[in-house]
Design goal:
The protein has 11 helices and no strands. It has 245 residues and is mostly helical. α5 runs parallel beside α7 and α5 runs parallel beside α9.
């Protein structure tokens, strides 16, 4: 498909979605894939959606990597990442064989469940033991490969623990940076990546980067309560759209 044919109304809508997703990533530190995935699954289908969202996520991770690597808890992140990589082939198989409409709705349901758990204020207060980290990583990797939204279980696990905010942020950036890079290789090897999805990802990445920059600046001037409420409202809207469309 010629590049000019990609410049249609869908790309314009996708750019607006990705800009808001970037704001989410910069403001809340997470939520960009959860916000973008339901709409992108509708606009482009599940296969193109996972490629575009993963590519845009990689762009932001690369931007943040240098600062995060020094504060990352590498023993924990390494174990979690290895387990996630083990689960990715299963998720890739589901993506290639499952009904696209079911995947699109599944993404929305995952987002809504995550919002519901956050809204209750529930937190996992226990230590990060391998017996929990390993199966959680496998599940997250499978979810990530199928839907591009593998974050909810990992985020609940990380953010609910006793670690400092800076450590959690660094762990999240490093984990999603590494798994995202491997996931793109898996998509290439499986034939999921096509020229259209690759070009769309490249065209939309600047929207993600711009939104993340603005969101990060806004976060420094906001309160914790506003931050959590806004993140929940935006994710709730995205999830409801994916379920009710």
């Amino acid at each position: 498909m010629p590049l000019a044919e990609l410049l249609d109304w869908r790309l314009a809508v996708a750019a607006a979605i990705m800009l808001v997703a970037g704001l989410m990533r910069g403001f809340a530190g997470f939520g960009s894939a959860m916000f973008a995935a339901p709409g992108y699954a509708v606009l482009f289908g599940p296969r193109d959606m996972v490629v575009i969202v993963t590519l845009c996520e990689l762009a932001v991770s690369a931007q943040l990597w240098a600062g995060a690597a020094r504060q990352t808890e590498w023993r924990f992140v390494g174990l979690l990442t290895a387990a996630s990589l083990a689960g990715m082939p299963l998720g890739g198989y589901v993506l290639l064989t499952a009904d696209p409409a079911a995947i699109a709705r599944g993404v929305a349901v995952v987002v809504l469940l995550f919002v519901a758990v956050l809204a209750t204020g529930w937190r996992y207060g226990g230590p990060k033991r391998p017996i929990i980290t390993l199966p959680l990583g496998v599940f997250s990797g499978a979810m990530m490969a199928t839907t591009s939204v593998g974050g909810p279980p990992v985020l609940l696990y990380m953010l609910a623990g006793p670690d400092r905010a800076a450590t959690n942020r660094a762990n999240i950036i490093s984990y999603f940076g590494i798994t995202g890079a491997v996931l793109m290789l898996l998509y290439f090897a499986s034939g999921i990546v096509v020229a259209e999805s690759l070009w769309r990802g490249l065209l939309l990445s600047p929207c993600m980067l711009a939104g993340a920059h603005v969101g990060a600046r806004a976060f420094r001037q906001s309160s914790e309560r506003l931050y959590r409420r806004l993140a929940l409202v935006v994710l709730l809207a995205a999830g409801l759209y994916g379920v009710m469309r």
